[in-house]
């Protein structure tokens, strides 16, 4: 069939042509927006799940919902080597710019921007001052304020900054939403500050919420930072699609192009993809390109599957596997051999890995910790680890030993 008309989109964070299976999350967020707009207390939201389940796509869609209600919004992607101050300042700057045209007092906006600039440029007092050429300046055309959000303590400053931003939103009669992707990569201090700020906002009913997305161990990181975090946020686990939703993700875009699937073809596609949204798009795209005509058959899927698997092996699995050192690959290979042949996200006891490798558990800690930092594995429960990527164990078992 015509590859130009291929409707599927297996891209990182790229919205699929049919966002299937996420109606519950979208409806729940609509209620959150309405409650906050009416001054009702509401919790910030945390989306968790493995890679490839569509967390970033859902995060962007939730942001669109907020924008449609004239909220001020900003989005950042956390990085393990970056402080929260700069990206968060840029995100809040964008959010307030969206609210500014609706505010009756321009001086009030400038007052907040002065606080925001002070927060942005404040350096960590525990670190040596940056050289003049390395100092970063935000694009805010007002002088920095003093005495507000500029103490250098990220927790104190963030509470004050969010409080002032929420006050601006209250003046306008709307809200502010900050969206944070890869939230598990925030530093421990930044996570603690975010929890403290959200706690303060929840107590006052201020119209500012944080929507985070991260790997399955994000709730554990938040709770380790602040014990009340388990009650502070609304947690939503984003999982693979059920059969009905996976079929809809394939058939709805195809029908718009006047193409149909035979039932057995959909059986094959669900078996191959496991219902993971990224895989659904990858197998759907390859199948479309190989199918000679409509309806698409099971034979078409089987012919196209090797191409989809080859693309996943390079772009989805291989790029991650190559980031690991030989010692880290040995650790992951052992994990993979200890998992069942059909694996999803099962956890492996770290003691069992050490036993299988004939090593002391302490000697394997550097490899384990490095893999967690690289986002290849996570520890959802004490003494266990699991892959962050669906079907990663199957891929590793197919690779030759180093």
From TrEMBL:
One of its GO terms (molecular function) is electron transfer activity. It comes from Dactylosporangium aurantiacum. The keyword ATP-binding applies. Keywords: ATP-binding, Heme, Iron, Metal-binding, Nucleotide-binding. Residues 170-321 form the Cytochrome c domain. Transmembrane segments: none annotated. Residues 127-136 have a biased composition (Basic and acidic residues). Residues 1-21, 127-147 are annotated as: Disordered. The keyword Nucleotide-binding applies. This is ATP-binding protein.
